[in-house]
Amino acid sequence: MGANEATVIHMPSAGSIAGVPVQAGWYSLYAIPSEKEWQIVVNSATQRWGVPIDAAVREKDVGRRALPVESTSSPEEQLRMSFDKRGDKSVDLVVHWDLTRVRIPVTLN
User: Fold this and answer.
1) First-to-last CA distance in the chain?
2) Residues 74, 29 contacting (CB under 8 angstroms)
3) Is the pLDDT of residue 3 over 90?
4) H helix and E strand count, the chain
5) Is the pLDDT of residue 28 over 90?
6) For the chain, what is the radius of gyration of the CA atoms?
7) Cα distances (Å, whole numbers) of residue 6 to 50, 51, 57
8) How far apart (Å, rounded) are the C-alpha atoms in residues 44 and 93?
9) Half-sphere exposure (Cβ direction) of 8: Cα atoms closer than 13 Å
10) Helices (H), the chain
11) Is the predicted pLDDT of residue 51 greater than 80, yes or no?
12) DSSP E strands: which ranges in the chain?
């Protein structure tokens, strides 16, 4: 999701990222955007440059999910990621750029 180093997330215990089941550990995320949804891909390689997403990177994909795009009325000039708490063991990783926002659910078991 970033243009340089891979975007990474640490899971302190088993759970799910974007609905993809994961074990405890570090994962990288990348997005395949389209107008109405983004494919969010969870990948086990964390020490890599953000682009290109080639066959060697895709070999380490753990899973992917399509998530809906939300349109916003206020633009975000720089890519911004933040967490919105949903429950005791769940948050949304909110990705906001320009007039687009995508909520990636992250849940711990």
Assistant:
1) 25
2) no
3) no
4) 1, 8
5) yes
6) 13
7) 4, 8, 11
8) 18
9) 13
10) 55-58
11) no
12) 7-11, 15-17, 20-22, 25-33, 37-43, 61-68, 70-87, 90-108
Angle value at C-alpha 31, between 29 and 35, nearest 5 degrees: 160
41-44 — which CB contacts under 8 Å span 24+ positions?
Answer: 42/17, 42/18, 43/6
Distances (CA, A) of 51 to 43, 62, 96, 100: 13, 18, 20, 21
* Among 69, 52, 67, 53, CA closest to 16: 67
pTM (two decimals): 0.93
Query: CB of 81 within 8 A of CB of 1?
Result: yes
Closest C-alpha to 103, from 84, 77, 78: 84
Phi, psi of 56 (to 5 degrees): -65, -35
- Asked whether the predicted pLDDT for residue 102 surpasses 80, the reply is yes
| Cβ atoms within 10 Å, residue 49 | 10
For residue 88 the two structure tokens come to 């005791």
